[in-house]
Amino acid sequence: MSVANTVDQRPAVTPEQKGQVERDRLRMMMLIRRFEERTYQEYTKPGQKIGGFCHLYSGQEAVAVGIAAQQPPAQPTPPPRQQSEVAIVIGSGDPSLPPEEHHPCHDTSVILGDANLVACAGSGSASEGNGVNVFTIDPADGASKENPVWLYHKTTGGSSLGHSAAFTWDGEVLVIGHEPGGGSGARCQETSPIVERTFFYIDAETGASLGQFAIPRTQTSVENCTTHNYNIVPTDKRYVMVSGNYQSGVSVIDFTDPANATEIAYADPAPLVDPNPPVGIELGGDWSTYWYNGHIYESDITRGLIIWKLSDNAVAGAKKLDHLNPQTTEFTFPFKGTAFGASK
User: Fold this and answer.
1) Which residues, 6 or more positions from 77, have their beta carbon under 8 angstroms from its beta carbon?
2) pTM of the full predicted structure?
3) What span, in angstroms and rounded, lies between the C-alpha atoms of 31 and 319?
4) Into how many domains does the chain fold?
5) Which structural domain range is residue 63 located in?
6) Could you tell me if 34 and 155 lie in one domain?
């Protein structure tokens, strides 16, 4: 979002008005916090019949209020498929669609450069399954960062809510991951549905399916596991992703041919021991794993930060960057290798 440009469009305010604006924003953050607290109370009430898991937003209220504050005056509502906390502030979804057809977001990925796309991984609606919504912010499409245009919704996997999304550096392929069980369940067992540990590769422009890849290493019944947070290695010769998958650990996947992706490296830690049986699962493992300038940075829930060095031809010659935001790809570059079985 072009915050500076949006703010510049707003009229100047007096110190008194500024104080009132700040109080209003604080009041809205408190409202969101009360909403989350009440949601948790209802979810944990004895005998409640709400299925699934409850993924709260507490502690991040300022994000929703900040997003709402930067909406230009001419756009009082956000694009369709916004998350519920933003909905509390300024409404949710396309006014022409009923609320049951909206798709709340979980994590969002942005790619700028020649692609100018936004992918919002999230839950399904009354008529569509869990997956991803994709928007364009390209002026050539009549869109912008302030006024994105919705392109399509893609249902992936039939599993629980879409959790994460990432674009290849040429903007051609979009990688979608899910988080069944909210990350606290043992969802990578040999007896678990294979889609619960699967990544999905789709055409970023059209949403057409290109392939999928399931983490090949199953886990025990006491290891919380699912796909989680990842990014794409900045190389123009291969499509390579680095992912953190809770107690399944680190997975490095070459998906240059998305229909025939392969795991080229992994680091799978030993199961954690629950000190309070019979609960069974001790929450832990790899929350997120990202590639940056030749190293893999793993954020482990119990072990802390772990840094890995990967030596493999698939990542040889990867670009060095002076900074990196895994969820905002700030530029694109053309792919020069061989993908989809043919040179591009």
Assistant:
1) 71, 90, 91, 92, 93, 95
2) 0.77
3) 44
4) 2
5) 1-94
6) no
